[in-house]
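Please go through the protein record below and explain what the C-alpha cells say about the fold. Record follows.
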Amino acid sequence: MVTRLLPPTKTCRKCQKILLRSEFYSRPDRGPYGLRNQCKTCTKQQLAAIPKTPHAQLPPEKKARRKQIFRKSLLKRLYGMTPDDYTSRLAAQGGVCAVCKSSVVGGRHAQGTFIIDHCHTTGAVRGLVCNRCNLALGVIKDDPVILLQLRAYLLAATASAT
C-alpha cells in the first residue's frame, strides 16, 4: 500500500499566495486534499462583497414569496406534504381542528395555519390541530393512557362537585 504524504502548503487560486494548509477551509468533497481552492482571507473577502438585504427591508411581495417558498420546503422536508396536500387534508376535516372542531387556529399561529400533528415515532401525519389542542397533546406526551386518566379525573371531580 502506498501512503501519500500531503504537502504542507497550497497555492490560493485567487491571490496566488503559497500558504499553509491551515489557511484554507476544508471541503472533504474537493479533490484529494479536501481543501477549498481559495484561502480563508480570499473566501471572507468574496463573501463580504455579496450584498445582504435584511428581511425587514424587502418589498412585501418578495417577503410573501420567500415565506411561501420556505413553507413549501418545510412541509416537504418535515412531513412529506405539498401545500395542496395540506389544503386537501384541511378540507377533509371541514376546515376545523381535528380534535376540538374549532375554526380558530389560536396562539402564535392566529393569522396562519393549523399545526400539523404527527406521530413522533413513525412521522405519520395524524391531522391538523389548533394551537390549544397541539399544546394539550404535547403536555400529555401523546400518551392515550394519560389522556384517559385525565378524563377520569375530570369526570370524578365533576361528579363530586354536583
